[in-house]
Amino acid sequence: MISGDTRHNTLPPRRVSFDKFFFVLRAFFLIGAAAWVVSTAAQIQALPGLARAMVAGAVPPLLWFLLYSVFFFALVSRFPAHRAPAFHAMMLLDTAFVTLMVRATGLGNSEFFLGYYLFIAAHTMSFGPAWGAAATVLSSALYMALYFQNPDRFFIGDFAVRTGFMFLVYFVIASIAENERKDRLRMELDSQQIDHLNRRLEKHLTELVEKNTAFSTANTILEQKQKKIDELNRSLERTVGELMEEKQAAIEASAAKDSLIQLKNEVTERRRSHIAFSKELNAKDTIEETVVLFSRYIGQLLGVDDVSVISAAADQDYLLYRPSGKTVSTQRLNAGHPILQTVIKNQDHVAEWRAEAVGETLPAGVAITDFEPAVVRAEPLLHGRAADGVFVISHPEPCAFDMDVMEETRILCNHLGVAIQNLKLRFKLQELAETDGLTGLYNHRFLQDRLDQELLRAQRYSRPLSVLLFDIDHFKRVNDTHGHRAGDAVLAELATVVSAKLRRLDILARYGGEEFIAILPETPLPGALELAERLRVAVQDHPFPIEHDDRLNITISVGAGAFPEYKTKEELIEATDQALYRAKSGGRNRVESGGHSL
């Protein structure tokens, strides 16, 4: 028998594939950094002082990075037994290298801080959470040292987001690595179970061979006794009876052998199907697609038509997913729903309702289908964690479920729960990468990509497109008079006020500091100017709350530009920025576009 303690075993870390992947990442990082140096060097004629200083400061660390990368690659290739110490030493050098590059290329404005994320992720995936945590702590400590040495060269909001993102990258990668480790452990346990069955089958086949040998020996004895049939007639009759019994036993043993072989083939094929299904489940891009695939597969496995999934939502409520064909409908449920409460009350185990046991109909709220079910069965997606999600089977007729198949279904439900959690983590990571942490608006990087897309669409289909650039008048006074916390509150409230005035298709982003930008698809310049004036008036009339229930009145200045008057993104942003400058220099609290003002 396979010991239950095997589930606590750990798998050895993967090495060879991660070594190559690690050095390929370093090569791409080096190429990108070298490209940056070359492009910056090309600007020396335009900005001789700044460009020359940045290139001079970046070249020595790059050469240092190249030399010790080649040295450690040769060391690991020549002495694989020293792989771990070599990589840990390289982690220290990598962190120091990124810190030097950030210091040499603009501190708070440098983009080389992204190297921290790269090396944190690579070390976590290669050596596990402990060493990944060490890389994260070391990277954040060095980056904080740069900040405290040069606080005037950093924007505190960017610094906080970047430092926090180091720990977020670590926790996300560590979680993914841990889930992968558990999946590999489960697959190893499944393989051990199959090997155990194979050994049992081989033992049984050996016994059958021995019985067949005994049967052959008995046939030989029978032939010898036939020569003495006259003398041993009665003995022969008894012997024939014994031989017939042995033959029947051999036939039954042969049938048992065939049955065992068929059972083994069925179990093996079902396990292969489960493994392929798990891989396909993890390859889906949305929760809806994952639930549809799970419902179809589990429905065929159990012979039921209705399989629903209840998953925890971000706002402490739950979403009910009910697949129908290739589509899925969603319905919001609260935490007090009878199904959820019963499963949790049963200590996160199975809950089952049968109409014949409770009366003609099931309790209120248990039937979540379009028909009146006779059986409803619910259990957690993740074992012992009903609060994370529940899957529900509904059947219109009384039926009994095969417990062996239900045990396999429980394992597949864990795969679904992990897949949904991974999707939620991926969505959260994407949201953090695209939004500004203070205002909740899109960030500068997302804005640049989206403006490229909208401008390309406007050019291709000859459609109007306008851009508004605005900032808060005398915002420095707000920070100096009321403090930076009040300034942050004003920025967040301004984002709310402006968002309420825009359409769903408009894109509002934080451009930087107290500057905001709005992309207005399908909007010509006159319409953009009217909207800008409404925004200016709305902000002017809105009391902005700050600390101690105080209110603050602010104003904004707005610059507007539009396609096709300005063809490229650079021209459009430059014209809008110049219009904002004219609005500021013309007295503030006004709207400007080219030579026009409101």
Shape: elongated
Q: Detail the poorly predicted runs.
A: 1-16
The separation of the N and C termini measures 84 Å
Report the order of strands and helices.
Answer: HHHHHHHHEEEHEHEEHHEHHEEHEEEHEE
Number of domains: 4
Main beta-sheet strand count, sense and barrel state: 6 strands, antiparallel
Mean pLDDT score: 78
Describe the strand arrangement of the main beta sheet, using strand numbers.
Answer: 3-2-1-6-5-4
Into which percent range does the helicity of residues fall? 55-70%
Give the number of DSSP strands: 14
User: By helix and strand content, what is the structural category?
Assistant: alpha+beta
Q: Helix segment count?
A: 16
Oligomer class: single chain
What fraction of the residues are assigned to beta strands by DSSP? 5-15%
Radius of gyration (CA) equals 35 Å
Note down, in words, how this protein is organized.
With 598 residues, the protein is an alpha+beta fold. It has four domains: 4-179, no CATH class; 187-282; 288-425, GAF domain (Beta-Lactamase, 2-Layer Sandwich), CATH 3.30.450.40; 444-597, Alpha-Beta Plaits (2-Layer Sandwich), CATH 3.30.70.270. It has helices at 16-41, 48-78, 83-104, 114-127, 129-149, 156-226, 233-282, 287-302, 338-345, 355-358, 403-434, 444-461, 475-482, 484-501, 525-541, 569-585, and strands at residues 306-312, 318-324, 327-333, 351-354, 375-380, 389-395, 465-472, 507-512, 515-521, 544-545, 551-552, 556-563, 591-593, 596-597. Strands 3-2-1-6-5-4 form a six-stranded antiparallel β-sheet. A hairpin with a 2-residue loop joins strand 8 (507-512) and strand 9 (515-521). The longest helix has 71 residues, at 156-226. 27% of the residues are buried.
